[in-house]
Design a protein that fits this description.
The protein is of the alpha+beta class. The chain is built from five helices and three strands, in the order H-E-E-H-H-H-H-E. Helix 3 packs antiparallel against helix 5.
Length: about 160
């Protein structure tokens, strides 16, 4: 007959216990290391670092430069004839507004020409005059181009070129 060797009964449990204790010790050492180096923190007063907020890229709708004839009355009678050469850009919040303005560019340019033709060149030579013109143009955008019209999200008007002669 053959003899079967039997292993002592407690030897497997000792190995399992040793591996478990070793694993727990390793986890404790790793946790202490992370706490000491600042990888993790248990301080509730420590501010949470947030990812930096990245501003979206600006969207501009550029109006090709144009020239407008303007007349202003002279103090002694008659009129002075001047030209305004201007290039503008609108800063918009979304692509829908940009596309809407590009689609309606002929009407937009017409409105801009009409506004510019009504200006006094002496007033436009001042910063306040340009600010007032900017306000007038921004208000013009509130007048609908179509019905119904989406809300136009225009945030600024920039004068890229502006010459009065």
């Amino acid at each position: 007959m053959s003899e079967v060797e039997q292993k002592p009964a407690g030897n497997g449990m000792v190995k399992t216990a040793a591996v478990s204790i070793g694993g727990c010790a390793l986890l404790i050492v790793a946790a202490v290391y992370c706490l000491k180096t600042g990888v993790i923190s248990i301080d509730p007063n420590k501010p949470v670092e947030e990812a930096p907020i990245v501003a979206p890229a600006p969207i501009y709708v550029t109006i090709a430069p144009f020239t407008v004839n303007i007349q202003s009355p002279r103090p002694m009678g008659g009129f002075t004839k001047n030209l305004i050469y201007s290039g503008l850009s609108f800063r918009v919040e979304d692509n829908e507004t940009a596309e809407f303005l590009r689609t309606h560019m002929p009407e937009l340019r017409s409105r801009l020409l009409m506004i510019m033709a009504d200006q006094d060149p002496e007033v436009l030579r001042t910063r306040e005059g340009k600010d007032k013109l900017k306000e007038t143009i921004m208000n013009m955008l509130k007048e609908p181009f179509t019905k119904p019209q989406p809300v136009l999200k225009v945030t600024d008007l920039l004068f890229n070129e502006f010459v009065i002669q």
